[in-house]
């Protein structure tokens, strides 16, 4: 029973974190960044603001904060961008550290259940082979709970790092566009 409760709670947490991260990154980052940067470089700040306002994701939120700041001083813009990014990053990685810990607890609970069942099987009148098969069921359940948690954790950490990198890139490139500095993107030609 504890393993079942742990498994259900863990999978709910995994699903919640997946949905939260997908919602925060539900925009095609590269085309969005390029469009906003090109609008800003073309002097179309209102259109860039509207494009950011039309989307609900982390990148457009960052764009709104930077574009709505009342300064065009590079140091001030970078400070605004850094502050905005610092408020977004913790939300991306919130509760992710719990997933591997819950996976370990699931395996340990499965092992505890297996040891308990094995002890009962060996001390009872059951046939040894039936007892061992029965005893290993909790361990299997623990492993089946742990596998998606470990895989989900790896995926979510990778996605949150990717989004954090996109936020950093967008903030630097947008600030450079606002202060009319060359674009930092490698291979950029204008």
Question: What features would you describe in this structure?
Answer:
- This protein has 190 residues and is an all-alpha fold.
- It has one domain (2-178).
- The chain is built from eight helices and no strands.
- The chain has helices at 2-24, 29-41, 45-53, 58-68, 74-93, 98-123, 128-135, 137-178.
- Helix 3 packs antiparallel against helix 4 (58-68) and helix 4 (58-68) runs antiparallel to helix 5 (74-93).
What string gives the helices and strands in order? Answer: HHHHHHHH
Determine Rg (CA atoms, Å): 25 Å
Query: Helix fraction?
Result: over 70%
Percentage of residues in strands:
under 5%
Identify the overall geometry. rod-shaped
Tell me about the largest β-sheet: none
| Strand segment count | 0
Low-confidence stretches: none
The end-to-end distance, rounded to whole angstroms, is 64 Å
Count of individual helical segments: 8
The assigned structural class equals mainly alpha
Average residue-wise pLDDT: 88
In total, the number of domains comes to 1
